[in-house]
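SEQUENCE AND FOLD
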Amino acid sequence: MHPMLNTAVKAARRAGNLILRYIDQLERLSIETKGRGDFVSEVDRAAEEAIIHVIRSGYPNHAILAEESGQQPGNEYQWIIDPLDGTTNFLHGYPQFAVSIALERNRRLEQAVVFDPLRNEIFTASRGGGAQLNERRVRVSKVTRLEHALLGTGFPFKTHEHLETWINTFRELLTHSSGVRRAGSAALDLAHVACGRLDGFWEFGLSPWDMAAGALLIQEAGGLTGDFAGGPTFLQGGNIVAGNPKIYAEMLRRIQPYLPAGLT
């Protein structure tokens, strides 16, 4: 395992174990509202601190972009951290949340970890080294027709700016696939695309920490990720389509007619 990936795994496990310690104490947690339907708890902050401590111990000069503490400058390496993706699920005891950590160098994703602490499933990837689930190689699904595909998505709950567009794409993809799931953790949904549990995924208005690790997992598992134009700017724009190569291409074809001018 690459040394930097090993650090990410160590950090993700430490955060995941911390999160699990609070799972039976949800009624005691201090919770703040960051925006419409967007919450942060003391667990998010504690998990993020634990991750950053592990990273700083090994790589004190690296930059950090974290959901709760924001940007910390550094050299050409940047860690992209979501300490608890699926906070609303966690706060309701709904069992779908994860720790997500990615590392990019000069804006190219190099390492990725998504850890599901409830299932003790750790998804990892290094650029050029493939993707693994609990150290076993995984690949995207082999489904070739959208009508046979199971898709994942997320609602644009933080803002209603793209709600009508999302509804139109949802209607189109629901009626031409075998089903659509909305589980509430984009990082985990993307990891499930990487291992073939989902055949494709799309969402509007995400942040880099929601997508970075999952995107590299999919790429290293043989899948494709892109913005709604099929380009590489999803981390900057916040809109993503992902899937195995056949389903990804068909999803783009179905989505694009419903996009307003300029939306990628």
Q: What stands out?
A: The two ends are 35 Å apart (CA to CA). The chain has two domains: 3-138, 146-258. The chain has a mean pLDDT of 93.
